[in-house]
Description:
Layout: E1 3-5, E2 14-24, E3 27-30, E4 33-36, H1 45-51, E5 58-69, E6 71-76, E7 78-79, E8 82-83, H2 91-105, E9 110-117, H3 122-128, E10 146-147, E11 150-153, H4 176-183, E12 191-196, H5 203-212, E13 216-219, H6 226-235, E14 239-240, E15 270-273, H7 282-291, E16 296-298, E17 311-314, E18 320-324, E19 327-330, H8 343-353, H9 358-363, H10 367-372, E20 390-398, E21 401-411, E22 414-418
Parallel strand pairs: 2-5, 6-9, 9-10, 9-11, 11-12, 12-13, 13-14, 14-15, 15-16
Antiparallel strand pairs: 1-5, 2-3, 2-4, 5-20, 7-8, 17-18, 18-19, 20-21, 21-22
Amino acid sequence: MPAAVSPERPRSGITRLTGCRLVKGNTLVEEDLWLSSVTGRILRSQEVFYEHQAAPDEVIDLGGRIVSPGFIDVQFNGAFGFDFSQAPQDPISYRKGLKELNRRLIGTGLTSYLPTITSQKPDLYHSALPYLGPSGAARDADEGAESLGAHVEGPFLSPTKNGIHSPEVLQSATSFADLEACYGAHNLSNIRKLTAAPEVGNMTSIIPDVIKHDIIFSIGHTEATYEEASAAVAAGAKMITHLFNAMKPLHHRNPGVFGILGHPSTHTPFFGVIADGIHLHPTTVKIAYAAHPEGMILVTDAMSLAGLPDGVYNWTNGDSIVKKGSNLTLDGTDKIAGGCATLLDCVNNFLNWSNASIPEAVRAITITPAKMLGMEGVKGSLNADADADLLVLSEEVDGEGRRLQVDQVWKFGRLVHERS
Length: 420
């Protein structure tokens, strides 16, 4: 890799990436990028060079490769044997396992995520959530992927659209106090997103209280009609969890949850799509994207079995999951039990299923989830002052189509992974 190093002057912690194409908006822009490992942010190049006369420690020529913001997964249950839905038995071991997971995730291009807990008994939420809140305050690149806060997927779900969520632990809330009792009032600051069925109990009327606690409400695992889903959006629901999965299908006389993508753009929620080739047909993904391209967020719904060999594995609440290739099913059934794909797999699938450009596809795992999380300009961006979480990507084209590869991963302005 061509690099120029200046040993004479004190190190500034600044790196200049040149010879690259930056993902900005829906285009690839030929432009240099300046990073600081001191602040962990992207710098204003003109200001750094002309006003402060600071020189970079390194100038790295990327040879025309693509630079993208780091990937963000807002529905991620675990990987490499680590399951967020399992209670910590030993705090020291749990923290160690979580750190190891975060360091391994970096190699997949995942720089930030929402650790997701499925429907469980209250005692598990009380014990696990203290470890799963936002983790990037120290801005330590060596920690690997960063939690942006937990996603609690349940237990306030429809018992007829529970998927693999154990029906024995599902609840119905009548007031916000029921949520506090379930998750622990002291844990609410660690929760960033809640998935619930708006028609169950008094959940729609509780949505404003959820939002007041800076928690994003997402519609999911639901029997909601179009009217019920619309009422949830009017109350403040901001997202749909894994669109099409675990909800009423589109019907010509009742469009169901999918129908709210036809709302005016100012009231249209974001929506998650699992583009692993198992959860949804490619055409279904294209239909969703065409309905609201600015709102589509690709998610993995990855389980702890991602990265492990095929076999039968114990899961929570006494259930077992069968892993066969990328297919996970609840033992003894044909129910899909989460995913094994990476976000890179999902974006490559979407590239080949659609006519989307690389920047358009990458938006669905960078700027769009950042917008949904209220972190636009901090995460998912290559603009000045954003966190310097970014990827160097190469593009391959063969008989099977287009494919992106992650060559480098940078976290808080430091190179933390390079493909061998």
